[in-house]
Amino acid sequence: MSRIAYVNGQYLLHSEAAVHIEDRGYQFADGVYEVFALHRGQMVGEKGHMERLTHSLNELRIDWPISRRALAIIIREVARRNRVKDGLVYLQITRGVARRDHPFPKDCESSLVVTARQLPPLDKEALRQGVGVITIPDIRWKRHDIKSVSLLPNILGKQQAREAGAYEAWMVSEDGMVTEGTSTNAWIVTKSGQLVTHNVSHAILNGITRLSVLEAATGAGLSFEERPFSVAEAMEAKEAFVTSSTSHVKAVTSIDGESVGNGHVGELTGQLLDLYVDFIEAKGGPANTSIWN
Amino acid sequence: MSRIAYVNGQYLLHSEAAVHIEDRGYQFADGVYEVFALHRGQMVGEKGHMERLTHSLNELRIDWPISRRALAIIIREVARRNRVKDGLVYLQITRGVARRDHPFPKDCESSLVVTARQLPPLDKEALRQGVGVITIPDIRWKRHDIKSVSLLPNILGKQQAREAGAYEAWMVSEDGMVTEGTSTNAWIVTKSGQLVTHNVSHAILNGITRLSVLEAATGAGLSFEERPFSVAEAMEAKEAFVTSSTSHVKAVTSIDGESVGNGHVGELTGQLLDLYVDFIEAKGGPANTSIWN
């Protein structure tokens, strides 16, 4: 079966899907994106992704290329045409095509690209295989709350992680605090047993999976703190994990080569994975979707 | 006459020139660019642009899509096919097309796009019409020495300038120093008459026009200091100007709405414009092209 992509009104063979060389996404990183997970044929956290997309577009003053309702239909149609039951839908909106010049062009129509890809179904056993993370300086721009395609520092960080044999790189601000991973949110369970993840601010992208885990934890009567944590605190933590639409809740068992806790997947991490899967299967995604910075 | 663009081995109608939706330039801002000025049919500062391109590619570990020699031929050919005598050639190289995933893909061929555009010839009278700049926080990532397409903060800054009726926005680091404009280098002539521009570091892009002006000044026996200057120092300066391949040496007569010096184009600024034009016409561009950070 050939992959199908949606590009500005047309469903095209993925291999032939193209955008103009003066699309501002290509020349200026002037665009935003979302990655929707599909789990057993259901969209996960659709409302949250749409609200966050709204935030990103508003902050950059990029127009919706089509209505939110039409976009929801296209996302489903791209998943359907690619027969994706478990996997992801990738959506990118840019300011559109215009003669190259820095200021916002006049009379420019936003570009929309939607693709989908099958992935192996969520596998709890695999997620419970612990992975390593490294820590690197956070050299990104200062608006991480906007899910822009300005991802160059993220890919450099991810590459550095892979070359170090690690799954992810946690980015550390100048004051020594872990902000987030290059494509995931970062979590620890402190020495005293407290679940902690960075609070919502311009310093992180508020993950949909992050929100689901927080709501699932609340539902199970678990407490948590939303605040920055230092590398030192993470090194002393009992447990650690990362979350994202495609990493779900993934156990972290080493930081910069040092074991986290006893080096095995933590008890609370395992519990949160179960709670998360139950939550998305029951609720579809987070209800609280209005807080983006 | 239709514009012609070069895209990965082919000369195409500009209107039909496209790149794949999974070009990493589009999805990750994983690419670099250069803008070459043409002045009276001659390429300005070609060696400098090529050396800087080499630096950008090396820092990001992106392969040359073709040899530097072949690239030089293509740049000329694109200018020729578009009949550009005064104007610019835009060149963009990205890591290429690969299934979307953050780490560097294996076996990926770099993408190359080259376009050209006619502009009005360099007009000293117009450049001596002073323009205004505003100052804004520098929220960019920390590797400004790499000329990447990760330009989202730059376009937001330029847009902010335009909405304030200004030509450019000067970006100010957390310690209050002007780094550079969103697409130009920033210069002042201090109260005591000293020519100053930010030193080369990761905090600025070392402009080819900047280098030409420094060499032209040296040739004329003018002294200068390469160091950061604060907004306060700029507000008290006698003169100010910006440089870039397309702004050349452009007088700045107001900063955040306050007049610079007597509000008229400064004497040294006018002299440097003359020296710059003489320099590029005689020398073609800077000789010292080895310092990129």
What does this structure look like?
Two copies of one chain form a homodimer. With 293 residues, chain A is α+β, with helices and mostly antiparallel strands. The first copy, chain A, has two domains: 4-118, D-amino Acid Aminotransferase, Chain A, domain 1, CATH 3.30.470; 124-283, D-amino Acid Aminotransferase, subunit A, domain 2 (D-amino Acid Aminotransferase, Chain A, domain 2, Alpha-Beta Barrel), CATH 3.20.10. Chain A is 29% helix and 29% strand. The first copy, chain A, has eight helices and 17 strands. In chain A, the strands form two sheets. In chain A, strands 8, 9, 10, 11, 12, 13, 14, 15, 16 and 17 form a ten-stranded mixed β-sheet that branches. Chain A has a six-stranded antiparallel β-sheet with strand order 2-1-7-6-4-5. In chain A, helix 6 (208-219) links the parallel strand 12 (195-197) and strand 13. In chain A, helix 6 crosses helix 8 (267-283). The longest helix of chain A has 17 residues, at 267-283. The model of chain A has no long low-confidence stretch (mean pLDDT 96). Chains A and B meet through strand 3, helix 1, strand 7 and helix 5 of A and strand 3, helix 1, strand 7 and helix 5 of B. Strand 3 (18-20) of chain A pairs antiparallel with strand 3 of chain B.
